[in-house]
Design goal:
heterodimer, A: 3 helices, 29% helix, B: alpha/beta, 9 strands, 50% helix
């Protein structure tokens, strides 16, 4: 997970959210929310990807909502996931090509003002208990919960 | 309610009389009922309402099966009045549209038309595949749409038509048909629903139409709003409209003089339906709908971006947002969506209510960074968050 120095500008029209990203406390809340979705609907289209040590990317039609999350969308036909409200002041297809040229084996690329990463395709979420356990471990690490 | 212009001028936007506001509220209710169950057709239904108050006609262009006729039928049913609908074809005879020759008068040697129950007696009309009509049909339609006079043989009648909606799969290339198409001031280009709305489309389609009988508001409501629209003060907005038309010309999107003049009716109607008797820059949003082609409408929107930045409308939020893509109109729509959800959920949220609240919150957060969320929208967001936390 890196931060790329790109200038960001407001989008004239926001993208439709297709994924949501969070770190630390927000990631813990996302994991809890994903657990609730899976409990309610075991056939949910939800997919998750653990990002680095404390991040979580969630995709699918039932994203729910958690405070402070970064909502991501796709600009045109690009696969690169970008924040819905801002856009980089560089050519998005060029950035996408650069990402996948370096990591052709990866399926997902994300670029936000605070981070960028490539990764495998998000997978079906594990059992709700595991998601909640992941959330609890994040909360413990961030100090929101005592160990 | 004070309003400010995007070009720096400030005007007082007088609030309308109570009766006019009530009429606007009745029409807003009709719009809400008409679009219920239709997916991604909010803007279309709202444009129909705008057109009715502006006394203009609408051309809906889109592939088959995009709920064109369903939207018009539902809106017409909520308004009330006599409704005429016809699918035109290359072999459609004029008498199928305008009525048969009156045989009693023919015996007297006069060719007159019996118009009862046909288009000339309709108050609301929907003409599907309108460009397939013969020359005889289209020529008669010209007068009927433009002057609201039906002329055929010895028959000359003023028609009660409030709104005619034409539909077609594509805009015609033929210059003669293009001239006819120019009579439809408003153009709505439809696409099949987006991928994101397919679940809603399938669910609504499976549920079928709401069997509840429409409760028409009556066309007298429209007639009173038309009077209010004709009395709307356009003084402040007229120079800005002229500037908008110049910008469209510079962007290679010229409007005919007729369309430029008639735009004023749409702007006045937008002001009246927003509860004001003075038009301001926030009412310029109908302009992109006046631009004929689907390709030119985004060009127009971009050329007018600076002038449309204030666009918003309390009653026609989806149309204002679709036309202008302004943050103000988006915020207003989201405020409405949030208030609507909040009015329907009370106490602890069940899973369905929670999903609805979350959907609005997600849309707010995906549309506005916290630092630029308008205060009124921020307040609605806070209430939605509180509802989630209580649930």
């Amino acid at each position: 997970v890196h931060s790329i120095p790109v200038t960001w500008i407001a989008r004239p029209e926001p993208l439709a959210p297709v994924a949501v990203l969070g770190a630390q406390l927000v990631a813990a809340n996302l994991a809890d929310r994903a657990a609730l979705t899976v409990e309610t609907n075991p056939d949910s289209s939800l997919r998750v990807l653990i990002v680095g040590a404390d991040g979580l990317l969630v995709t699918g039609d039932e994203l729910g909502w958690v405070p402070g999350a970064t909502w991501l969308g796709q600009d045109g036909v690009c696969r690169l996931l970008l924040p819905t409200t801002v856009m980089p002041a560089v050519s998005v297809p060029l950035v996408e090509r650069a990402f996948f040229r370096v990591h052709p084996e990866q399926a997902v690329a994300v670029l936000t003002p605070s981070c960028s990463f490539v990764g495998p395709m998000p997978t079906r979420p594990p059992a709700p208990e595991q998601l909640r356990s992941f959330a609890a471990s994040l909360l413990t690490r961030t100090g929101a919960l005592s160990p | 309610v004070p309003g400010t212009s995007g070009l720096g001028a400030s005007v007082d936007t007088e609030v309308m009389e109570r009766g006019e506001v009530d009429d606007a509220g009745l029409l807003l209710g009709a719009i809400g009922r008409a679009r219920k169950g239709l997916v991604e057709r909010d803007a279309l239904v709202e444009v129909l309402a705008l057109a009715a108050v502006a006394q203009e006609h609408v051309l809906v262009i889109g592939p088959p099966g995009t709920a064109k006729s369903q939207a018009v039928r539902r809106f017409a049913a909520e308004l009330g009045g006599s409704y005429f609908e016809y699918l035109l074809g290359r072999f459609t005879e004029p008498n199928e549209i305008f009525g048969p020759v009156d045989l009693r008068r023919l015996r007297e040697g006069v060719v007159a038309i019996e118009t009862a129950g046909m288009l000339p007696s309709a108050e609301l009309a929907f003409l599907d595949e309108v460009f397939l009509g013969s020359t005889a049909i289209l020529n008669t339609l010209l007068g009927l749409l433009n002057e609201r006079v039906f002329r055929r043989g010895a028959t000359v009648e003023h028609v009660p038509l409030r709104l005619c909606v034409g539909a077609s799969n594509r805009l015609p290339d033929d210059p003669v048909l293009a001239a006819f198409a120019d009579r439809f001031l408003l153009r709505v280009h439809l696409e099949p629903v987006t991928d994101a709305s397919l679940e809603s489309l399938l669910a609504e389609g499976w549920a079928g139409d709401d069997p509840a009988t429409p409760q028409p508001i009556g066309l007298d409501v429209i007639d009173r709003l038309v009077i209010a629209r004709s009395q709307c003060d356009m003084t402040a907005v007229r120079p800005i409209l002229a500037e908008a038309i110049r910008r469209l010309r510079n962007a290679g999107v010229p409007l005919t003089d007729r369309r430029a003049v008639r735009c004023q009716r749409l702007i006045a109607a937008a002001a009246v339906l927003d509860g004001r008797s003075v038009a301001t820059t926030q009412d310029l949003w109908p302009l992109p709908f006046v631009v004929p082609s689907a390709e030119a409408q985004p060009v127009a929107r971009e050329a007018l971006q600076e002038l449309l930045v204030d666009s918003r409308n309390a009653a026609l939020g989806a149309a204002a947002e679709a036309a202008s893509a302004s943050p103000a109109s988006r915020a207003q729509r989201l405020i409405g969506a949030g208030q609507s959800v909040l009015s329907e959920v009370a106490g602890p949220l069940d899973s369905s209510s929670r999903l609805r609240v979350e959907a609005v919150l997600r849309e707010i957060d995906a549309a506005f960074d916290v630092s630029v969320t308008p205060p009124e929208l921020g307040a609605v967001r806070d209430r939605l968050v509180a509802a989630i936390q209580q649930g």
